[in-house]
Amino acid sequence: MSAVQHPGALPREPEPDHEDALGSRPAPVGVGNDNPMVVGRTQEFERVLARLKAAREGRTGLVALSGEAGIGKTLLMRKVADHARRDGFLVLSARMLEGDWQPSYHAWAEILGEAMAEVEWPSSSHSPPEWFHALAPILPRLAHVYQGLAPAANLSLQEERFRIPDAIVRCLDDLSQRRPLLVVLDDIQWSDPGSLRVLLHLGRSRKAALLILVAYRDDYVDGPGRLVDVLAQLRREAWFEEIALHGLPDHDVDQLMRDVWGEPAPDTVVRLVSEATRGNPFFVHEIARSLAEEGGIGHVSGAPLPHLETLTIPESLRQVVEHRLARLSTTAQRMLRLAAVCTDGFDFPVLQALTSLDEETLLDALDEALAARLIAPTGTGAERYDFQHALVRRALYDAWSPSRRVRLHRALARSLEQVHADAPLLYAPALAAHYHISMAVPGAAAGVPYALAAARDAGRRSSPEQAASY
């Protein structure tokens, strides 16, 4: 699905998390694949097809796919579009542009302009349809169909806000009388207000052979705003359906990795990648490709990867993380970068000691990160959090210089001691580890008692290997 570019608009930098291959079965590394297949998503696909069938029978529908970047929304929409074309639908697609500079209704203008070129329209000898005057300002090519007609009368701002969305829906109605119509809109989280209002007007065309399929990133819908308000209204309508895409289960992760490598992946590697990525198809694909480039299945089959820290984080994933992080305040970004040193989650008091932020500022930063779906609460009742994806933490952690990392580990050790001053030995394993990692910094000997305490505890638990390690 190509992005719509308005003439004269500044080009948008392509994002690193292209969804063209998200959730797909890519060919092995170095092999082209012009027709990727969807892994999983069978139930979601069938739900959209049911709405497509209803549209063919004259029941207008609107389906919204939601999920984080890389979850496979775009590929699923592409699969639906291919099916619809084979079924005789006219498929029109566009992608909303990021940024407030985009012209109002630009995506709808692109869609309708494409439709005008595909559908045989009555000649200028006929009277123009009732929606013509309202759309002429956003669809200049109409002037070539009905030449010499006077422009529409000026209306008040409030009337204009109603007239154009209503005219777009009426135009879609007319188009669907000639041929069943599927309209695909991607990234509607970046829609201008007018374009979103068009969706609310769809209720006026319930007898049209029309399905609107949209997608948005739920990690961008992080508070009150235009899209949140529109979705709240749409959810009350029977002709609207929302389908949330989640991470793939282990067997689908296995299939994705198998198709990248060309042979089965070891179960231990599949479980590791599935846990680290939470089944995000783009993350799985990029990690699998990275492993393949490092030597393929032979790199890991003889020695299964024991934990996340052995994975190399591809540059594509770093770019995804940085792009998501850029939406947050400077304070929230700094908090997350510091929290990345915590390998097993973090408590609010420890995070406050580590970041040196006052309580209210830290609460605001946490709220931002939670709304952006970068972290999530863990457990019940406790003020404890962890990164949604372990790979996000790793990407942030790897961005620090080695010198910064060891000092962060020392800072975390001191924060743990400060918060748990009454019973530090309860946290002996973590303290021993952070002091050991920061052994290049003076004062590492303070970690020796923690290492010995952790060793004694491991011995009592009949874990001699772990005791020896401490």
Rounded Rg: 27 Å
Shape descriptor? elongated
Helix content: 40-55%
* Helix-strand string: HEHEHHHHEHEHEHHHHHEHHEEHHHHH
Helical segment count: 20
Oligomer: single chain
Helices and strands: which structural class?
alpha/beta
Termini separation comes to 54 Å
* Major sheet summary line: 5 strands, parallel
Strand proportion, as a percent range, falls in: 5-15%
The largest sheet has its strands arranged as: 2-3-4-1-5
Determine the mean pLDDT: 81
Question: Which blocks of ≥5 consecutive residues have pLDDT under 50?
Answer: 1-36, 301-306
Number of beta-strand segments: 8
Can you give me a brief rundown of this structure?
With 470 residues, the protein is of the alpha/beta class.
Search tags:
five-stranded parallel beta sheet, three-stranded antiparallel beta sheet, elongated, disordered N terminus, 47% helix, alpha/beta, 8 strands, 9% strand, 20 helices, single chain, 470 residues
Description:
The chain has 470 residues and is α/β, with parallel strands linked by helices. The protein has helices at 42-56, 73-86, 106-118, 132-135, 142-145, 157-178, 193-200, 226-234, 250-261, 267-277, 281-293, 315-325, 330-339, 348-355, 359-371, 390-398, 402-419, 428-437, 448-460, 464-469, and strands at 61-67, 90-95, 181-186, 210-217, 240-244, 346-347, 375-377, 384-387. The strands form two sheets. The protein has a five-stranded parallel beta sheet with strand order 2-3-4-1-5, with helices on both faces. A three-stranded antiparallel beta sheet has the order 6-8-7. β3, α7 and β4 (210-217) form a beta-alpha-beta unit. α12 (315-325) crosses α16.
